[in-house]
């Protein structure tokens, strides 16, 4: 009897700790403004068929933003698969937006199954719900690699949770008011030469590289060495890179 009670108790107590992390959709920019020639990024986090769904956008499923009669198609530019259950699709605008107009995001002909993961009536990242829309604005061109000035190593974090560890290297940007909306980050495993790329959106002037308890764009391996470089896209949509630099691996600095 005691054994049965112990098993039941364990199920109810431990289930929240070892449950699934779930999934979420984030659409960038999260702010209420969009540059008249800006990019829109969909990001699928965690367990979900996001890679397969994102492949269908702009082919099986039409995607556009609209303000009144002005409808602008979103053209799929790049599909990026992270190392640990994160996926992105990057869109460019087919034509320039009209400054000052408010544009709403639409995806048409979604299947019921895909609609479960691509419900555009929510903003998952900050918990707020509502229609996804932006006001078109002509922004100063800060998306130049020189505007990054100097990126500094800031913090290494390894935190052990019930479902797994969170392992992150955090960099600090030194130009708070001139940073691009997103950075293109590429990591190279020194011992294998394999490289992995992802679009990272800075938050609070910090750039976090690695993964959380359940998922993330990059995955550090024990005892491995890494290099990293940061880039932005110029007006011709070519990537301009800073030089490669050492990327501290948080596992190698974890205290026993």
Tell me the layout of helices and strands.
Layout: H1 2-18, E1 23-28, E2 33-35, E3 39-46, H2 50-56, E4 63-67, E5 70-81, E6 86-93, E7 102-107, H3 112-115, E8 133-137, E9 151-160, E10 165-173, E11 183-189, E12 195-200, E13 206-211, E14 226-233, E15 239-241, E16 245-247
Parallel strand pairs: 2-8
Antiparallel strand pairs: 1-3, 3-6, 4-5, 4-7, 5-6, 7-8, 9-10, 10-13, 11-12, 11-14, 14-15, 14-16
How would you describe what is shown here?
This protein is mostly beta strands and 256 residues long. It folds into 2 domains: 23-137, Immunoglobulin-like (Sandwich), CATH 2.60.40; 145-253, Sandwich (Immunoglobulin-like). It is built from 3 helices and 16 strands. An 8-stranded mixed sheet has the order 1-3-6-5-4-7-8-2, with helices on one face. Strands 11, 12, 14, 15 and 16 form a 5-stranded antiparallel sheet that branches. The relative contact order is 0.15. The model is unreliable at 1-20 (pLDDT under 50).
List segments where confidence is low: pLDDT < 50 over at least 5 consecutive residues: 1-20
Question: What would you call the shape?
Answer: globular
Instruction: Write out the strand line-up for the largest beta sheet, numbering strands in chain order.
Output: 1-3-6-5-4-7-8-2
Helix and strand element order: HEEEHEEEEHEEEEEEEEE
Structural class: mainly beta
CATH architecture of the largest domain: Sandwich
Query: CATH fold name of the largest domain, please?
Result: Immunoglobulin-like
C-alpha end-to-end distance: 40 Å
């Amino acid at each position: 009897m005691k054994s049965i009670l112990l098993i039941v108790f364990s199920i109810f107590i431990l289930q929240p700790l070892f449950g699934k992390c779930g999934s979420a959709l984030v659409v960038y920019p999260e702010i209420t403004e969009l540059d008249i020639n800006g990019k829109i990024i969909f990001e699928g986090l965690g367990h979900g068929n996001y890679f397969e769904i994102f492949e269908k956008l702009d082919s099986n499923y039409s995607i556009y933003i609209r303000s009144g009669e002005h409808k602008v198609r979103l053209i799929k530019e790049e599909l990026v698969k992270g190392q640990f259950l994160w996926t992105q699709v990057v869109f460019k605008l087919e034509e320039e937006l009209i400054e000052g107009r408010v544009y709403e995001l639409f995806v048409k002909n979604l299947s019921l199954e895909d609609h479960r993961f691509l419900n555009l009536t929510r903003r998952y990242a900050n918990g707020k719900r509502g229609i996804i829309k932006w006001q078109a604005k002509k922004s100063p061109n800060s998306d130049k690699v020189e505007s990054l000035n100097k990126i500094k190593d800031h913090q290494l974090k390894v935190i052990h949770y019930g479902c797994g560890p969170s392992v992150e290297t955090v960099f600090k940007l030194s130009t708070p008011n001139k940073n691009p909306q997103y950075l293109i980050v590429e990591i190279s495993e020194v011992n294998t030469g394999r490289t992995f790329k992802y679009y990272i959106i800075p938050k609070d002037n910090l750039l976090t590289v690695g993964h959380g308890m359940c998922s993330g764009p990059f995955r550090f391996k024990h005892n491995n060495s890494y290099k990293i470089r940061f880039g932005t896209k110029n007006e011709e949509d070519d990537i301009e890179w800073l030089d490669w630099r050492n990327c501290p691996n948080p596992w190698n600095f974890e205290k026993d």
